[in-house]
Batch of 3 targets.
Target 1
Amino acid sequence: MLPGAIATEFWNTAGTPVEHLPTEWVMSAEDLVDAALAGLDQGEFVTIPALLNAADWDAFEAAREALLPNLSRATPAERYTVAGA
């Protein structure tokens, strides 16, 4: 699936006319802007106009935040060390 396809002239420049994409993937630029502005008005930090359930974003963000303390360390995680080394 191609997420976030917006009907703009960019697709022609990129070599794949928007008309070649499945219509259920393509949002109009007007709908995108209206939805994004509505999300910002509702206090959303990130707006994803096609995302049906805002709780999905909240779950993603919670998982990302849980990873943060473990993404940068001076040594590899134990599962990556050679046994007996």
Note: The first strand starts at residue 5 and ends at 7.
Target 2
Amino acid sequence: MPQYMLLIYTPAEGGPSQDERAAEMPRWFEYTESLRDAGIMVSGDALHGVDSATTVRVRSGETQITDGPFAETKELLGGYYVIDVPDLDTALAHAGRMPNVHYGSIEVRPVVDFSQTGMSETQAQARA
């Protein structure tokens, strides 16, 4: 079955308060458990805030390390799930049940299955 990554975004400004986010946590636990119970959860985690990010770039052979996020944005990546479901429509249905979907957004992306490309994962990584 194909895998899909559900990338969870929240507004950089104007989102729920700390208390509202805390009150929402039981819904996140229920959602995660529903994915496990359905046997489709591959992985998933919340991410620390963008203030804890470090960005690495190599330009002209020189490594540049910058504290903070790569770019200013209106939405922040807060976490992800990887699910194993039959098709995109099923992945979209699960994304539509996320607790933050009424104020944030969920980006749904298929995960590349290198066994379907005729290239091994090691070969693909060597080309990157």
Note: The first strand starts at residue 3 and ends at 11.
Target 3
Amino acid sequence: MSDDTLNLLQGTLDILVLKALAAGPQHGYGVARWIRDTTDDALQIEEGALYTALHRMEKRGWLASEWGLSENNRKAKFYSLSTAGRRELETGARSWSRYAEAVFKVLRAPVEEGAS
């Protein structure tokens, strides 16, 4: 892992994409840009991984999609959260918050020298 960017832990991409779509429909590039901008460039999603995740989540019923025009007048597929996707976002956010807090507890714990 470099100092400039963070590698995504397995399973985080779905929750990040769901969160990016919580405010409204976006095309894939818009989702990736939102994640990059929101994390101050710490997380940059590879295009192949993003579109694989979008298609997987659409098959699971978490996303709906429709074709439209992007801000530069190009045909693009726009994704939006379904009701099931909103539920998954809520459930996933709670799980990730518990997980992150547990990791932070370990990282903040004092270490006793000489402990085995």
Note: The chain has four helices and three strands.
